[in-house]
Amino acid sequence: MPKVYLLDYVAGNVRSLVNAIEKVGYTVEWIRTPEDVAKADKLILPGVGHFGHCMTQISSANYLPAIRKHIESGKPFMGICVGLQALFEGSAEDPTVPGLGIIKGRLERFDDSSKSVPHIGWNSANTSDKQVYGLRPSSKYYYVHSYKVPYRPGELESQGWTVATARYGEEEFIGAVAKGNILVTQFHPEKSGVAGLRVIKAFLEGDSKIDTIVNGEVKAAKEGLTKRVIACLDVRTNDQGDLVVTKGDQYDVREKTSGGNVRNLGKPVEMARKYYEQGADEVTFLNITSFRDCPLADLPMLEILRRTSESVFVPLTIGGGIRDTTDTDGTKVSALEIATMYFKSGADKVSIGSDAVLAAEEYYQGGKKLFGNTAIEQISSVYGNQAVVVSVDPKRVYISKPAETRHNTISTKFPGPNGETACWYACTIKGGRETRDMDVVELVKAVEAMGAGEILLNCIDKDGTNSGFDFELIDQVKSAVSIPVIASSGAGNPGHFEEVFSKTKTDAALGAGMFHRGEYTVKQVKDHLAAKGLMVREFES
Ligand code: 1PR
């Protein structure tokens, strides 16, 4: 099989990139020293996370002169995400660290005054009337970043570059740039489904010719970030010791009849693949028992991720048990080490639940100071904020009047058992079994300050009820933070997704039971959203 060379430095989830390359018929050879670069015919520079961190890693290992030489010699070069950013002159993310300066321009942070940052999700890479390296104006690609190169019409084009652009709110930015042997993408082609695999294949096959698209031949997708639809799989071992996808009613996963067995709704890898094929924009696995008695290296979720990432080319999130812990042989293992194991196995994001609540409590007790020692801070400083999701498991506490509590309250249209019209949302830990004296607003503000990049907002009152999402909870959380929020719990039909996207500002919505029980497919949800005029990624086969 033909080979492509990948630069090996700490850069998040490279397993998916390897899988994507293999999927289109190539093998990967690792470059582990600057001298190795000379033997590369085709070279790929991956990268995700912090610009300064990645550039410093590459530069202190002395790779920069070799990369420059490779590019200048005219050999094929592809940069992904920070691999694109590296070719520009620098980034506001770390102004002290220079880029290679091969392309003119600097990165700036997205404006978060009226939209969520990081920019996470599916957006265009529109080359208008040109088609190069398999990029299509009709496709959407998966982005995850807080810094962008602003697009200035004509500037790079006048230097011979072909530029693909995307729009986020009012900001138009560069999604990909190509010229001759060089292709760099801000989006992750390895996470962009069939559209992304096509770009990787075109690069590997050296298909850099620029075709002009005849007017009307290709219909461009609507501009902007799509609404994300996420399928979630709660995974645990059942009483027979098999690893199954299960689903609770308000977090109770045992059948009400037939001996109270753990509900078994199917096999994790097969179900993830099915949802990918139905057009899910992301797949989330929650390990809801954390497999307490198992050595960490044998965690069944690692194998599930490895197998899933071989055939699912959209982002994968893994949650459950991400905290400092002690292995079965007594060795101390940090949350960062556990996260690293997951990233190496194919996860793009880790989701932290209980540990985030405990860390937030300490944050407030310590007078809102950060010491860099929490799992959120440690993982986000190495892998970037976008790699750290905080999963929140709140439940309603009704009160007769807001003055009764110190917590952030809302007035609700859904009165409590004694007619109460006010409530607050208490955070829980250990899968909802323990309620803490912390409200959701306190939690999400604290974890945003620590460096979380996204909130997975469950709701115990709504979980498994099929009665729709809790808009009051979503509104309260959305107005407290500027990082993206995923609405979760309560989805029972496609109309519930339409409602949550049109009535709240949520960035994404997640469903579980309705998909697992086969009541609706992800495709039906997305078709319904599209029919109602909401922008979704169309599935390409
Ligand atoms: O605390 O870091 O070990 O993480 C544990 C993780 O496992 C948390 O993310 C927590 O939400 C999750 N979890 C723990 N116990 C349960 C349980 O159900 N007994 N599941 C559980 C949480 C909620 C959602 C569910 C949506 C949508 N599941 O993931 O998928 O509510 O369901 P629906 O569409 O069917 O209504 P840590």
Automatic annotation (TrEMBL):
Catalytic reactions on record: L-glutamine + H2O = L-glutamate + NH4(+); 5-[(5-phospho-1-deoxy-D-ribulos-1-ylimino)methylamino]-1-(5-phospho-beta-D-ribosyl)imidazole-4-carboxamide + L-glutamine = D-erythro-1-(imidazol-4-yl)glycerol 3-phosphate + 5-amino-1-(5-phospho-beta-D-ribosyl)imidazole-4-carboxamide + L-glutamate + H(+)
Its EC number(s): 3.5.1.2
List of residues binding L-glutamine: 81
Domain of life: Eukaryota
Keywords: Amino-acid biosynthesis, Glutamine amidotransferase, Histidine biosynthesis, Hydrolase, Lyase, Multifunctional enzyme
Domain Glutamine amidotransferase intervals: 6-193
UniProt GO BP: L-histidine biosynthetic process
Pathway(s) per entry: Amino-acid biosynthesis; L-histidine biosynthesis; L-histidine from 5-phospho-alpha-D-ribose 1-diphosphate: step 5/9
Top-rank EC class of the record's enzyme: hydrolase
Spans annotated as PRFAR binding: 353-354, 391-393, 463-464, 489-490, 512-513
InterPro entries linked: Aldolase_TIM (IPR013785), Class_I_gatase-like (IPR029062), GATASE (IPR017926), His_biosynth (IPR006062), HisF (IPR004651), IGPS_HisA/HisF (IPR050064), IGPS_HisHF (IPR014640), Imidazole-glycPsynth_HisH (IPR010139)
Gene Ontology molecular-function annotations: glutaminase activity; imidazoleglycerol-phosphate synthase activity; lyase activity
Active site, renumbered: 81, 188, 190, 234, 393
Record keyword Ligase present: no
CDD domains linked: GATase1_IGP_Synthase, HisF
HAMAP family xrefs: HisH
Family: In the C-terminal section; belongs to the HisA/HisF family. Belongs to the HisA/HisF family.
Function: IGPS catalyzes the conversion of PRFAR and glutamine to IGP, AICAR and glutamate. The glutaminase domain produces the ammonia necessary for the cyclase domain to produce IGP and AICAR from PRFAR. The ammonia is channeled to the active site of the cyclase domain.
Protein name per Swiss-Prot or TrEMBL: Imidazole glycerol phosphate synthase hisHF
Source species: Amorphotheca resinae ATCC 22711
